[in-house]
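Sample A.
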Amino acid sequence: MEILRPTLVKIGRRLYRKNHIREQTYQNEEEEDFYSGPMDGVDEPCDAFLVDETERGYQCAVDVPSALFKYIIGKKGETKKKLETETRTSISIPKLGVEGEIVITGQHRNGVISARTRIDVLVESFRKKQPFTHFLSFALNQLPIQENFLQFKKEVLEKCSNNYGVSSSLFQNPAKLHLTIGTLVLLNEQEVQKAQEILQRCKEDFADTIAEGKPLTVEVAGIEYMNDDPAMIDVLYAKVHMKDGSNKLQQIADRLMDRFVTSGLMMKEWDRVKLHATVMNTVFRKDPNAEELNSKTAGKSFKERESFDGRNILKFFENFYFGEAKLDSIYLSQRFSTDSSGYYATSGQLTFS
C-alpha cells in the first residue's frame, strides 16, 4: 500500500514522492543513513533549479544550514555516496560546523537536478525533526494584564490548589504572556535574516493596510483548555479577540502564517491561527522557561506530563477578564531567552505605522 500511496513532501510550491524509509538509531553516531533502498522514482528531472553549465558539465549550488549537513552525509558517509553513485554526480559539502553552500557537479544536467531534488527532500524531512528555535508573537505582557493574571493565579491557588495536579509551578511567567502566531526552525544567521526580511515584506504587503496604521485593541478574556478531558488538562489558555469585533487580528495572523509557511521556515499545523495566550501549562512544572510545544513536536513530552484537574478552575473562572491591550508590534522571538523587560529576546520586529 505504501508503494501505491507514497508519502508526499512539499517543498515550496512543489510536491515530491518519497520512498519508504526504515529509520534506525545508531549508538554514538550523529550521522543518519536516510535511505534504506533504491532511490529510483524519488524525483523526476525538472527545470525548477538554477543549473549552471561549466567547461566540465553542469553545476548547482544549494544553501543548507550546517546543522543539517550530517543528514546529507549519512552514517560513515553512506548517504552522500549513494546520492553521488545513483545520480552520477559529485557533491561537495563544507566541513561540519562551517556555513556554506553545498555544490553539486556532474556531466549530465538531469543528474545534477536529481541530486539537488533529493538533497531538498532530505533537508525538508530532517528540518521537521528539529526543535523550534524562534516564534512569531504578539506580546500580551502589558502591566494591567500582568496584574490581572497574578490575581487570577492567586484566586486559582486559593480555590483549587487541592484539585489534582494544580500547583503554582503551572503558571506562565507574567512578563512572558504572549499570543503565538507560529513556530520557526532557524538554523543559522542567514535564515534569521531571511525571516526578518519576510517580516518586513509582510508589513509592506498587508499588515499596515489591515491595521490601518493603528494599534490593534484586543481583549483577553475567558479561559479554555486544549485537550478533550477537563479533568486531565495540559494547557489552559486565555482567549484573545478584537475589542471592536472585527477580524483584523485573525487576518494578520493567518496571512503571516501563510507567508512563512510558503517560505519553508514554518510548518503549517492548522488552517487558521488559534488566537490564545497560555496561562497554565504542565511543561512549566519541570522547566519554567519552556514554551508550549506544537502538536508535531510534542509527542513524547506530552506523554511525560502530569496533567491537572481543571474542572473547578473552568467552573469558577470561565469568564475571567485579564484586560485590554493595544498591539502595535509582532516579534520574531527567540525561544529560551529573556530581554531586559522580562519578555523574550527579539531577532526582528514588525511595527504597525
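Sample B, a different protein:
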Amino acid sequence: MATAHSLGSMPFFATLFALCVTTFPTLAGGLSPSPFIVPVQRLVNTPTTGHSLVRAGQARLQAFSKAHSQVNGIPGDHAALAPPAASLTDQIVTFTINPVVNGKNFSLIVDTGSSNTWVGADPANRLQPGLGLDLFEVTYGSGAVLGDETTNTVNITPGLAVENQSIGNALLSEGFDGVDGIMGFGPVDLTQGTLLDNAESTIPTVMDNLFAQGTISNETLGVFLAPTTTDDPVNGELSFGGVDTSKMTGPMSFFQSTLPFWSISQSATFGGVTIMDTTTCVVDTGTTLLMLPEDAVTTYQDLIGATLDPTTGLLSINEAQLSNLTTLSFIGTDINGETQHFDLTPNAQLFPRAFNTEIGGSADDILLITASSGSNDASTIDCIMGQSFLQRTYSAFVTPNGNPDAAGTVGFATTPFTDATTN
C-alpha cells in the first residue's frame, strides 16, 4: 500500500506538484499542438432521489464487474437485455455531446465507462436500419440497448469527422430518457462480445478511428467538467488529440490503467487514517457519486460522525461536523514510480446544495458525495471515481501510440475548481 506524505495545510494536489512534474507518455506524433475542442452539454435530470444515485452507482459497478469477467474469459451470462436496475435519468447530471450523423442531430451521453457508440434511444430519431449487418447488445447496469450496427460518418464538430464509423442504431432500449444514445470513450476491448453474431470481434471506437485516419496525432481524450451547482449547461468540454492546457492550473501526472476500463489503483486516507487499502477504481463520467468499498465508507462515516439520511440515502453531517471535516486523500503510484496524492478538500466532499431539494432533501441539508459500493469483495470492481471527483480535476485518457492492445494511462491535473468553494 502506498505511504502517504504529510500534507499539513497544503492545498489540493500541492504535494503532487511539489513531488514530481510529469510529462505525457510517449505518443505517436507527439502532443497535438491544437487539439479539437468540443463543448459538453450538461443535462440536469429531475426529479430523482439520492437513493437512485446510490442504486445507479451500484448498478454500474455490477455491470463493470460483469464486463470485466467477459473480457477476461471468465464464464458468465451474456449481457442479455433486461429491465435495468436503475436508469441513466437517475444520475442527477448527464454530460452529453451533439454529433451529426446522416444529417440528423443527436444528443449522446459522454461515457468513459463504456466503448460502444450508438444512437436511436428516441424512436423518433433513429438511423435507417442496417442491411445484413451484425446485431449488437449492451447493458450498462444503468440501462440497456439492442439494435443493429451500421457504418456512417460521425461529424463531432465542424472539422472533426470520423469516417466509416461503426455505429449502433437502437431497435430497443431502456433507461435513456432525454438523450439519443451514448458515445463511448472507453478502451476498445469493452466492445468485445457486444456483436451478437461475432462475439470475438471488437468494434473500433471513435477515438481509435480518429487516430487511424490521421485526424488526430495521438489517441488522447481530455475531459474538463465543472462542478454542478446550477441548472445552466456550462463549463464542460472534450479535447480530442491532446489536452486543453488553458483549463489546467498545474502539470499532469499519469497512472497505468490496469483494467479493460479506464482505471487507477489507489488507497485512501481521511485525516491521515487509512480507510481504503489499495484497490482499482474505474474512472467514469457516467456515475455521479464517489463509490467506495463498503468497509471504506463505514470507516469514513465513523470518523466524521455522519449518519445515513433516510430521505436521500446519502451520508449527512451537521454544521459542527462540517467545521471539523478534513482532507479525503487518494494515494497512487504514477508511471514514474512516484507516490502521488489526489486530495478532496472538505468542500469538494459535499453534495451540491443547489440540488438537495431535487433529490428529496431539504435546502439546508449537508450531504456527502461518497457512497458505498455495497461490496467488500476483492474479486469484483468496487470503486468508481465518478463525476464528483472528475469535476475537481482535468483528466486525460491515453491509448499509447494508438495501439488498443497496449496498456493505456489516465492523467490528472488541477483546475480552477480543484480548491473552489462551490457547495
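Observation for Sample B: The first strand starts at residue 36 and ends at 39.
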